[in-house]
Amino acid sequence: MASLTPGQIVDALAGNDCNRLIGTDESDQVDFKLAPYQLDENHQKWELAKDVAAFANKRGGVIVIGVECPKRVNEIVETATNIRPVRKAVVNLQQYPSVVDAWIYPRPEGVDFRWYPPDAAEESGLLLIEVPAQRRGNIPFIVRDMREPDAEFKGAIGIPRRDGARIIWETAQDIHRHITRKSSNAGGSPPAQPEIDHARTRVSTIEQQQGWEVLPVYTLQALPPEGPDILDGFYDEVRGSLNNHQRLREAGFAPWQNFDIELAEGGLIARRNDIVTWVEPSGLATHSLLIGENTYLGWYYNEHRAEGAPLIIHPIALVETTLEFFRYVYLQLRPRCGGGAWRFRIACHRLQSNRISLPRGHPTPHNPWAFIYGQPPLASSDEWEREFDEAGSSGRDAFEALQRVYALFGHPPAAIPLVTDNAVSENLLTGLP
């Protein structure tokens, strides 16, 4: 049985299919524990801080509590062998974020603690601790105390990180290198790669300008590596591409035409009532789409929606708009930026409070409603933001983004239409009638 990724583990838990975890190996992004942390003990507080900081210092990951993962003779990697749900009554969940805040500096962003199944009536379940990838500027995350807080000697610190299935501690040389690297950047030119805070500000600005502050919005962002302040051809060729990007389907869901182009803060804004694309001179691109009855993402399946009924996202529209964004980045922006890896973000805002639903699979021409069985699941969060490193092609990066969107609705990657070999397929898309 193949080991699961963090996203697949979340999908399995959300789908109440915990047995899928059996056979999964621990890794640099996955850790299993049989029993919860006993946070009335200082040593256990230290253990929680160490485990969370180790994921935050690498590329994020998940800790699942309630999974038996015994040590095996002559085996380095431990594998999940049994599911043993934890009694919720023995866990004070409010303590967990308090310990993370108190014992780790700086505080890792977005760490989430939640039960599966989430139903409060369930007496037992699996506790998931999800540590998202962190901003590079905040790394390293330091465990404040390396000894019992009541011990006589205080002040020692340590920097843990995941190395495969184990945790290693940074050496004195590593810590010194972190400090000198930070010092060399202080007082000099800021790094060219946009910070996550700046990217988030762009999303907020678009939502405010459009009057979308209480409406459901899906945003994709591309964050370039360190490079030129102004891309070659930005004010002529890039500007023209916002209305003339070569789309895969002329009659498809590709919002790259009929825009009004504006200039703001040196960047280019292509704006319509339901779609905004903001490209900055450095290459930072923000693409926000409103989800509504008469928009791309809400097309067709909401034409006769009853009052108060969920608003259904059209799966093909979601997949195609996502793929076309990454095609735009790879064809128009990435070649102008020089070398280096890009980083991407998704942001799904207010989907839960607006009762947004996403079916799995996709429609067929003969029976476009057949793929919607019963009531498709609603979004499970109102603020869903995820980041990932480029996978090397527009199709693969679109798949990476869509995995994270579908996880918001509890769907596994197999629910995403038009996918082949972990990539959205241009051939399958263009073959649609």
Order of helices and strands: HEHEEEEHEEEEEEHHEHEEEEEHEEEHH
Radius of gyration: 23 Å
Helix coverage percent: 25-40%
Q: Going across the major beta sheet, what is the strand order?
A: 13-14-15-16-12-18-20
Detailed description of the structure:
With 433 residues, the chain is of the alpha+beta class. The protein folds into two domains: 6-149 and 156-171, Methyltransferase, Cobalt-precorrin-4 Transmethylase, Domain 2 (2-Layer Sandwich), CATH 3.30.950; 196-430, no CATH class. 26% of the residues lie in helices and 20% in strands. The chain has helices at 6-14, 42-56, 95-103, 172-185, 196-210, 234-244, 315-333, 394-408, 426-430, and strands at residues 30-33, 61-65, 67-68, 82-83, 86-87, 104-105, 112-116, 124-131, 142-143, 160-163, 166-169, 217-223, 260-264, 267-271, 275-279, 285-290, 311-312, 343-349, 356-357, 383-389. The strands form six sheets. Strands 13-14-15-16-12-18-20 form a seven-stranded antiparallel sheet, sandwiched between helices. Strands 1, 2, 5, 7 and 8 form a five-stranded mixed sheet that branches. Helix 2 links the parallel strand 1 (30-33) and strand 2 (61-65). The longest helix is centred in the C-terminal third of the chain and has 19 residues, at 315-333. It starts with 5 loop residues before the first helix and ends with a helix. The model is unreliable at 185-194 (pLDDT under 50).
